[in-house]
Structures
1.
Amino acid sequence: MEFRPCIDIHNGKVKQIVGSSIHDPVENFVSPNDAAYYANFYRNLGISGGHVIMLNAPGHENYEATVNQALGALKAYPGGLQIGGGINEQNAREFLDAGASHVIVTSYVFKNGLIDYPNLNKLVKAVGKEKIVLDLSCRKSQNNDCYLIMTDRWQKFTDVKVNTETLEKLALFCGEFLIHAVDVEGKNQGIEAELARILGAYHGLPITYAGGIHNFTDLDKLRKLGKNRLNVTVGSALDIFGGSMKITEIIDYLNKY
């Protein structure tokens, strides 16, 4: 189990938002520091594999400012960070050449309530599966019996369950998974325990879990339910983003296992 840092960028600023509000963001924290500051901070701590997420969609008036922030982070920590947000087969190679270790894919593949396999195949052809991280953002189904992959900025359900079978199928097209628990993302109120248990049953590619961690009890619960297999990102609960959990203490805690 490894700590994976994050840098979320919206309107050209590093922020933490409530995940379920991504369509109309509710801010938890807006940093006075730029993305390169955090990239250097993570680099100095010796932690890698984190994700830079560009929250403005391509075409948005602030998209360019957000991209420039992201590129600054990649330049500050080449090979140490993954990047997501508006990634497709046309621009993926550019971000990798700019210093990203992987590209994180969401809306290009998961859209209109479906998984777009033709686009996924295009991306694999463009950069190779080992450079792709699939973001399987998910939430409880309407009848509450499973977790389903979400599309369209986390607003539309697919009929694809997050389980071992799905992960094994999608593992043919990527090198890692990033899984956001949408209903608890950014709320600082605890993890999705059932989802952690499902992910812990999978023996395959690396998975980073994101969503809801707000104290060390949550972190310990995730470690146990995920059978020490899941990597973890912590956002709004971190001291560097206005929270109470010290990043150095999290690293020390995970290094014990």
2.
Amino acid sequence: MKTRTVIIKAPLSVELIEEERDENSIRPDECFIESLISMISPGTELSRAFGLKKGASYPVRPGYCTVGVILKKGSEVNSVEVGDRVLFMGPHASHHIVSQKAINPHSAEEEFFYKIHPDLSSKQAAVLLMGWIAMNGILPVDVKLFDTVVIFGMGNLGLLLGIYYKTMGVRLIGIDPVKHRCEVAESIGIPHVLHVQPQDQSEAIMKATDHKGADIVIDATGLSSVIETAVSVTARYGTVVLLGSPRSDYVTNVTPMLNAIHMRNLKIIGTLNQLYPYDATQGVRITKRRGMDHITTMMLNKTIDVDKLVSHVIKPQDIMSAYDGLMNHKEEYTSVLIDWTL
């Protein structure tokens, strides 16, 4: 059958191509899945679409947050049934052949099926994996009720992470140079949001913390300059969390930042989305499945209101316009979903 797939052929060259795929060729451990909705990951995808990641190879099949319905399954698949909706790490495409096995959790090739709660919409489910990625910004951190937490970046990761920290009862501050994102942060209940340009952010955070700095500071942008600012506003014995993935070149004198880390006894935590396995193993109690079960509950009870997080739902052929919006029109674009039924 003919399927549609998004391909980034080179920077600024994105196409929706047609391919032949044999749905009858699935192995016993695989399923044939028709996509319903997939979510754009701004950091990863924009870095490829606009050539921000040095040394990246092309072509690229972008995307890894996909919701689909199972049309066929192999004889060894026992975790789902034909007709079930599932979340899986599939690129932007109309159809997929996916293994049910969650393989090495330390590999970028990890695959899994997450069966979607019947009361959860496909739109909500498409945000589940991004919700889990954001959870990596809180799970490895030693959080206390009296802590002050600062999140740099009110994009989808920062907003979701802000919701989690808010439920912990800490003093929470969000900061972003884009007014629209600050307004979204306020609308979802982040109590203290600062709309401040990058060059003034360090001063604004220090003023907001009575010049003490924050106990926990998270970079949810992936911008090296922001990480430098994050270190500068972290209090003695505090923690800096790198939730975003730095990709673009940045030239600076690192000695003041390294000196601050050393002299203030700061802890730096890297939180690429490979800290925890999908399913429980011996000696492990934190898993992706458990995290997404909790996020599902938060969505069902409206602690997480997906409608406030998603700004655009597009047709697959409009993906380049969505990339442009996410990159160049941040006052309008926050999160974007691709509806494969359109």
3.
Amino acid sequence: MMKIVIPELDSPIIREAVNEYTGKADFVKADSLDEAAVMVERDEVDAMISGLDYSTRDVVLACKKYLPIKSQYFSGSFICKRDGKMFALADGGINKIPTKEQFLTIVEDTAKTFMEYTGKIPKIAMLSYSTFGSGGNNAELEKIQHVIENIRKKYPEWVIDGEMQLDVAVNPKVAKKKAPESLIQGDANVLIVPDLNTGNILYKALEQFGGFTVAGPIIQGFDKPLADLSRGSTVEDVKFTIDVIVKNARARA
């Protein structure tokens, strides 16, 4: 049976969440983030979930200290769901202003996280204040085009398009009017934001105002499935995060 280490296992929120997974996964406690990361590094557990009582910085530093990086860079994505609608959002947890190379890795790893959990082909929207050049050209939009070109070459089966505004990415009626040539047509399931400010504010707005349940951030780029809970996570957020980690670990097995 899959084994997951959670340093905050004694928290009432965590306890209520893990009760849903009795018989599906084993949960073990660690006395610190360092101890939890070492357990992952030694293959004593299959995955780690933490962050309810720790900052993202603390969680990421523990992972960097003990765990090998699989991708060239690491990043944080969220899986958001409400009323049958589900999508991935990145990076809202780690990279402040990603370089072209970091940006490309964020897109790759977030699409793979989404595929591992849902089994669906990613439809990736590169979000911006601009839609297909409507806002003029600048270095940020050039960075987006660099990512799109490389993803299309490397993953021809994926759908990626942009740059585009959020309403074009998720609303078919708006997409038809603003961007009739878009490959996504308002049906994006992976949303990529230009920087950490945008991603963090957007995911918290979805959670606090939009009624979305959010898993993550899922820490991407390491060999083992890792998650960093928000310190404001609800029981439902924790259950959803466990579900994502369990399915992603099985997909990699």
4.
Amino acid sequence: MSARTTRARGALLLTATLTALLSPAVATPAFAIDKEHRQMEADLRMLQEQSQQLQNLLGSITDAIKALNAKLDDQANANRKAMADEKLIVDNLTNDVRVIREKLDDNNVRLGSLSQEIDALRRGVQQIASRPAIGDAAPGAPADSATPPGAAQNAAPVGVSPQQLWDAAFSDYTIAQYDLAIQGFQSFIQSFPKDDRADDAQVYIGHCYMQAGKNDKAVEAYDMAIRNYPGGNAIPDAYYRRGVALRNLRQLDRAKDSFETVIKNYPDSAAASLARQQLAQPAR
């Protein structure tokens, strides 16, 4: 074998050896690069998924915020409406209170005026009652059956209406000023004998006497009402109260007769119902 052939084989052997040694070194970086590339792609996909999740979460939060804002707006509108309604109610109540206060003030003024008028009438009635009768009745002249014994013979002051005189007398009766009430009712009968309440006034005189414990005078007053106003609407009560006064005086037969009379003549009246109750009670 020539030297040239030997050198050629040596070169080939050296080349093969170098190729074998260098091949792993070249392949290793390429494999590493591919693996790193795949890892980066995986990380990128993960980042993309996380980004999508974040976007979805952000969208949900945005929707929740929108819903919350809508609820807050609705609540704010409801609060504004409620406040407006409450303000309207308060304004209406304020107006009502103002109107009521004005009416109360007006009523107070009217009550004050009425009290002054009643006081004036009471003083007038007292003056009338304190005056002596003007003149004596002519000899043989019949007595006025409508005038109760001992009543003042003077009429009410000029300008006093029947209602005013009645209110003054009735006011005295309600506060248990029975003497003043009797004077007032007597004055009413004398001043307005044709008034529809004349029989009521005479019956109230009997009530005043009975409330004061003067049952005998009460019987006289009721008898006068029955005698002078036989068709009056207060007569059933006069019969009943007369019976009560007679019963208080222990005149039981006369009391029974009075109760039976009101039951017979006025069976549907409240006085008749009370009279039946009196008759149903045992004698005391």
